[in-house]
Amino acid sequence: MNRVDIIGAATTFGQPRLGVDLGPDALRYANLINEIEKLNIEVNDKGNIYSDIKVNVAEHSQGDANTLKNYDQVMDFNEKLAKSVDESIQQGSFPLIIGGDHSLAIGSLAGISSHYENLGVIWYDAHGDLNNSDTSPSGNIHGMPLAISCGVGDEKLVNLYKDGPKVKPENIVLIGMRDLDEGEKEYISENDILTFTMTDIKEKGISAVMRESLEHLQDKTDGIHLSLDVDALDPMETPGTGTPVDGGLSLSETLSAMTQLHDSNKITSMDLVEVNPLLDDKNKTAQKAVSIASAFFGKKQK
Ligand SMILES: NC(=[NH2+])NCCC[C@H](N)C(=O)O
Ligand SMILES: [Mn+2]
Ligand SMILES: [Mn+2]
């Protein structure tokens, strides 16, 4: 790719920990734009998207596990995000969506999907984000975007921006899984979604996992979206995130995974999500996220 559009997805509405909406700026302060430009790529920073409905600190993320928390804000935000992502692809740019909580993938996939007949998705995360309001333990919409994009869940979210499902389960690969809820496990086995848990990664090694993932997707898809949640990494590497889970990927495994994706030339869009500077230690999570993006865009590991 020679031009990257950076789209700041400043949403905190998919989960309860305030501060993840500051993630896009934490990444910019960690030198994201310069690091990509150094790789001879033109970078166009489109600024941040916010919901028109403002954060009310006292009322943020109220309700029980059966409700879709901050529903109106998530709808409103993702409509705007989908439009921006769609425009970037129309203009021939590679969209890099920086979050923000993972509910933003509802909008990014909605904006991307009209450009591909058979979109592939690599979901690099500790979580499957395959819940719906019946299976969710929390009511947090950041645990649901992949299910919604497959057509499962609230009708208005499923049909956001463009009617119908945006991805097929057979075109998804899950990498880094170690905290799946019961309903998610059922959905994965019923739909035969290719899944690499941390145990699988430890057994096979990350490079075989990435090779198998690309092999699974590359012939049957005409574009592949990478959705990378920084909680895929171990919390010792990326502590600044809202739902950390022990036993995750190392930075070096992730950098080599990104180099493999870069070298494949198959990835057509990317989300980089769940950096929360208020939970971080001296912006170290954003700095690692910037290293991850640099490797993805072609920086060689010395
Ligand atoms: N994008 C994330 N960090 N998702 C975490 C989801 C956690 C849990 N499975 C839930 O649905 O509430
Ligand atoms: Mn996660
Ligand atoms: Mn996630």
Structure, explained:
- This is Arginase.
- One of its GO terms (molecular function) is manganese ion binding.
- With 302 residues, the protein is α/β, with parallel strands linked by helices.
- The protein has one domain: Ureohydrolase domain (Arginase, Chain A, 3-Layer(aba) Sandwich), CATH 3.40.800.
- It is 36% helix and 17% strand.
- The protein has eleven helices and eight strands.
- It has an eight-stranded parallel sheet, sandwiched between helices.
- Helix 8 packs across helix 9.
- It starts with a strand and ends in a 6-residue tail after the last helix.
- The model has no long low-confidence stretch (mean pLDDT 97).
- The structure holds arginine (ARG) and manganese (II) ion (MN) (2 copies).
- The site of one manganese (II) ion has 6 residues, from loops.
What's the SSE blueprint?
Blueprint: E1 3-9, H1 23-29, H2 32-37, E2 42-49, H3 71-90, E3 94-99, H4 104-113, E4 119-124, H5 145-149, H6 155-158, E5 172-177, H7 182-191, E6 194-197, H8 198-204, H9 206-218, E7 223-229, H10 251-264, E8 267-273, H11 284-296
The structure holds arginine and manganese (II) ion (MN) (2 copies).
Arginine binds next to loops.
Compact overview of the structure:
The chain has helices spanning 23-29, 32-37, 71-90, 104-113, 145-149, 155-158, 182-191, 198-204, 206-218, 251-264, 284-296, and strands at residues 3-9, 42-49, 94-99, 119-124, 172-177, 194-197, 223-229, 267-273.
Give the integer mean of the pLDDT values. 97
Task: Give a short account of the largest sheet.
Answer: 8 strands, parallel
Order of helices and strands: EHHEHEHEHHEHEHHEHEH
CATH topology: Arginase, Chain A
Radius of gyration, taken over Cα atoms and rounded to an integer in Å: 17 Å
Name the overall outline.
globular
**Tally of separate helices:** 11
Low-confidence stretches: none
Q: How far is the N terminus from the C terminus?
A: 22 Å
Name of the level-1 CATH class:
Alpha Beta
Please, what is the CATH homologous superfamily?
Ureohydrolase domain
Structural class: alpha/beta
Bound molecules: arginine, manganese (II) ion
- How many beta-strand runs? 8
